Prior knowledge:
By secondary structure, the protein is an alpha+beta fold. 44% of the residues lie in helices and 12% in strands. The chain is built from 4 helices and 3 strands. It has helices at 2-6, 17-31, 40-50, 89-103, and strands at residues 58-61, 78-81, 84-88. A 3-stranded mixed beta sheet has the order 1-3-2. Helix 2 (17-31) packs antiparallel against helix 3. The N and C termini lie far apart (31 Å).
Amino acid sequence: EKALKYVGVQCPTRANANERTDIQLLLANYFYVGRGSEGRDALLAFCKRINPDPSRTAIVLACTDFSAAFPECARDTVFVVDGITFVDAGSAHVQAILEQAIVHD
């Protein structure tokens, strides 16, 4: 969070209890049970509810299970779906690791 703020990216406060419950339900109902593509609409609805201005913000998919909602973006670190910008943290980590491996090879 400090690194993002350092470069001018404002981070929202941590999720409240209701939002954490909603995230847990999304994961349990769709993503942990391998139904990620079915959870896409529910995940997008949740993101729109907590993100009133998608044109100025991004949602970080820090839980790798959420990436299953967007199989068409599996190779992308940053992508836009339904006007919402997503950052796939898992993909970003893999890309960073590969870049370092190539640089130090």
